[in-house]
Amino acid sequence: MRRCLELARLGKGSVSPNPMVGALLVHEGKIVAENYHQRFGGPHAEALVIAEALRRYGDEAAAVFRSSTLYVSLEPCAHYGKTPPCARLIAEHQLGEVVVACRDPFDQVNGQGIALMEAAGIRVTEGVLAEESRWLNRRFITRIGQQRPYVILKWAQTADGYMAPADGTQRWITGAETKQLVHRWRSEEDAVLVGTRTALADNPQLNVREWQGRNPKRVLIDKDLAVGPAAHLLDGSVETIVFNATRADWVGNTKYIALENFDWYLPQNMLYQLYLMDVQSVIVEGGRKTFDRFIEAGLWDEARIFTAPQVWGAGVAAPVIHAAKATSQRVGADKLHTYYRNNKPHTN
Are the CB atoms for 270 and 221 separated by under 8 Å? Predict the structure, then answer.
């Protein structure tokens, strides 16, 4: 099962809004086929493993399946979506046993995949490394259970606790290594969000130019549409969502969403709109006001805070997180502290 979780992680950044899933087939004490869900809309891990075994064993595959155990890091699906149900495929090939880490919380699956396999006479064991599996798919579980994306707060601060100059200008805090890591993170999440002040002061691109991977959706909070068309965020190069108070239309890659009573439950309303667009995770990279909105609403799951060695003596103070620090590491000359609001990290 640990190997299944390792395989599942390879789909990070490619399978959302689906969960990350790894699977492998064990026959006579050896792994004879293994794979993972590689991209949204593509075949699931279980289907890839069965296909690999069919190619390997040909006419002998049926006998091999009956005496084999399939390990999978999440309950096989029981419904028709982008692909046929994996639980039905497993039942058709009459595998001897299936070991499942945890159930899929999605209503159309939750327990139904297991029931379908058991009805076909397949022995099913569940709960093996269940907490580790749920932790790996915490973004998916948050979206399904709370009807909102998993929210990651990310900011940099000086050694004396400032995150931006007081005059609203741009001033870089962290080093090149941190910048590259942030771009890798962007490639792994669905969206990245900033507010008006950050867009005007920094003119960010919010892409992954320092890393190889797909660009996330860009999300801008711009109540009065103060960010002009010359801004990088409105260049049409990446799908961009602009939450505002008045405009509702779609121009090229830019979607304007007007929120009625704009300042009323703003984080909640934005996150629900993103949920409706199948956004499973969002990195908040805004300024102090934007961070305060999410923190005060209790709408954050993870905070990644870089502290650089430089000292400013004055500026905009960084937010304060009331949560136990979970991890700490060095990134170049900077320190990265990661906090979790509710969940306790589990690793495989």
Answer: yes
